[in-house]
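Each field is set out as follows.
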Amino acid sequence: MTAPLYAQDEARHPPPNAKTDELAAFYAPQQQRPPYDGVSVERDVKYGPFDRNLLDVFAPVVRDATPRPILLFVHGGGFTGGDRQLPHGLPFYDNVALWAVRHRLIGVNMTYRLAPQFGWPAGAEDVASAVRYLRGAIASRNGDPERIYVMGHSAGAVHVATYLAHPEMQSSDGPGIAGAVLVSGAFDIETLPIGEREKGYFGSDASKYAERSSLQGLLRARTRLLVVNAEHDPPMFLHQAEELEFALAHANDREVKTLVLAGHSHMSTVMSVNSHDTALSDAIEEFLGGDAKP
């Protein structure tokens, strides 16, 4: 794993052992609250047949002269939970989509089917459905269907990676995205500690874990990747990123940008987006290049 590229002083992020509610209390005052000035928010857009096949689309009220790229965010939740908005009126994950709009993209948040009712590969199939929907519908919202970036966090990163690794889930012309940001993901299920939530999604038959992993498929995939972890992620996430980086470097000399966010924990990375703490958002902006403009 490469050394941290973004160092921050303690005033910009909470202690590494902060709980989720403490992290929310730290970052929430720095986030915008609705209604969002200059931003149109279209909630509960159906992208597929299931109850949780829903999108929230954030776009500027005043359209640009040219179509904008899209950032599609896929939340985490341990395969069994999570949503486009955290409960109790918290501003997450609107913050990710708002950052996108402020950087001349269209921001989209999605939900997907959950385990144990829906097992592998339901999450990845829903990412595929959302991408197909956006490629067909985002132009009417002044988006560029040829410049869709997908960002997944935790279980969401697993679903994005699975989608990229399994061509059978993609359209005939490929995944249809310009790049992917994988934040605190898991890619080799055989080496992942398996608890009840993981069994609820991947099943209890360990002989199927290799085929349900994304590692080997990512070695063949050509989509540009940014792989991000937090310094204080649970060790399993750091091990998974190191395994992916090693495999990619030795399989085909393919360079994938990886980084560790100094001082951050598993949830603080995405909660920090669009706040004074710009570690993750700076990395995303750099990865997107000219497609993200402050």
User: Anything to note?
Assistant: Confidence is low (pLDDT under 50) at residues 1-10. The chain has one domain: 10-291. The CA atoms of residues 99 and 201 lie 31 Å apart. The beta strands are 39-46, 54-60, 68-74, 106-110, 143-153, 179-183, 225-232, 257-265.
